[in-house]
Amino acid sequence: MVARPDLPEEILIHIFSRLPAKSVGKLRSLSKTWRNLLSTPHFIKSHLALQNTRNKSLILIPPSSVIRCVETIKGVYNNTVSRELNLPGLCCEFLGSCDGLVLLKNRDDEVFLVNPITMQQSKIPDPPVPVLRNEALYGFGYDSVGDDYKVVAVFYPMSDNKTPVYIGRLVYVYYVKRGVWKKIESSPRHYGLPARFSGVFLNGAIHWLVPRSEDCAVIAALDLDSEVFFEIPAPSVADMNDFFFGSLSVLGGCLCVVADTLSNSEGTDVWVMKDYGAAESWRKFTVSWYDFGDLFFKPLCFVGDGEEEVVLLVEGPRLVAYNVNEGTVRDMVVDRVQGRFLDGGTFVESLVSPA
């Protein structure tokens, strides 16, 4: 048995909370004493608070649907090494992440909450009302007041003959710690549903880019503490008469809108909201159609600590780094081959349990 150093518990927590999550996992395996100390809620929260949330790891889903985990993005010139995650079924869609937990959907439209570092996982039960799984939109985040993680499902109700009723919509919240679903009364009935995208979590709320009317798009946000919807102004380009295609993500800790517009014949605009909630803080760069044509792409993260290169997941599939200043594209190499992935997203390494 490995003895624990004769130091006060708070000092040990202070020291070990600065270690990478994988290193803490190895220490846990040394003895029951270490496992008990490094598994307390206090230690897990202390460890999470000290993680560099800007240094993102990637979850990547290749055509084989055998999910891969990339724990560091060093740059486009270096070979990036991934590892396979042993998850139930074949995963096909990334639904969101928060505090090191990742929400994934498999080909059977079953939803799972996974910690890619500890490999713990938990299946999310279906909402307590009939719903077509493949038509439900999801979001995932943390309620700081209730100290619970929440999965949000937005969907149309079903008729008696098992077909969707496209009038109004239902919003249900799943409380991960309590293991129960709850219907939210403040459903955004004047919003349309986005065609294919899950919500993104930032600043305590889950956000969707949605049509509010025939000529206007808006970012609808659900505050997870109060469970009340509010609005954030979309970029001024969000005129539905000009909007060909739009998606929402988080890039460098900021809301990010990818906007294909009919009036822009040169490329696709990427808008980043530098000051959360402030309409005047939207800034943009344009990705030339010369690089991707009209293929959809999804910004994942910046390479390294700067904001010069952005990792993009491009339909095709293709994983690239786009240089914002130079307007150049380089293919990223994963496991010594050009990265080809159907979907993916970012997460921070943590010890948080999905159950």
TrEMBL record:
One Pfam short name: FBA_1
InterPro entries cross-referenced by the UniProt entry: F-box-assoc_dom_typ1, F-box-assoc_interact_dom, F-box-like_dom_sf, F-box_dom, SCF_F-box_component
SMART domains: FBOX
Entry-linked CDD domains: F-box_AtFBW1-like
Superkingdom field: Eukaryota
Domain F-box, chain residue ranges per copy: 1-47
Name assigned to this protein: F-box domain-containing protein
Species whose genome carries this gene: Castilleja foliolosa
